[in-house]
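Justification of resources, computational component.

The compute hours requested in this renewal are based largely on the per-chain cost of generating structure records like the one below. Each record pairs the submitted sequence with a full C-alpha cell output. That output is archived, and it is also reused by downstream analysis tasks.
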Amino acid sequence: QVQLVESGGGLVQAGGSLRLSCAASGRIFSIYAMGWYRQAPGKQRELVATITTGGRTNYADSVKGRFTISRDDAKNTVYLQMNSLRPEDTAVYYCNADAFSSKSLRRDDYWGQGTQVTVSS
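The structure output for this chain reads:
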C-alpha cells in the first residue's frame, strides 16, 4: 500500500505563484513515475505534468513555460512549481504515483486526496 499526501494549495491572485508538494509513504518497492492532475468543477480530470524516475517530464500545453515539475527521490516527493497563475488554473490538484508496493506486490496507480488551488482575477 502507498499513500500520497499533497500540500501547498491555496488562494492566490492572478500572476502569482504556488508550489505544491506530494510525499509518498508506505510499503514502496519502486516508483516508476509521479505526476500532477487537476479537476475543475464540471470538468474531467486532466494531466498537468508528469516526471519519470529517469527525469523525463511531460506537460500539458496549457501550462508549458509556467509550471515546473521536479522530484526528490530520497524523499519520495514530487513538486509542482506554478508561476504566472491564471483563473483558468483554478482546480483541485491531485498527486499521482505509478508505483510497485512491497505489501500488495503489484504495480498500481495511487492517488492523493487533492489540494485546492484557487486563482482570483
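The radius of gyration is 14 Å. The first strand starts at residue 2 and ends at 7.
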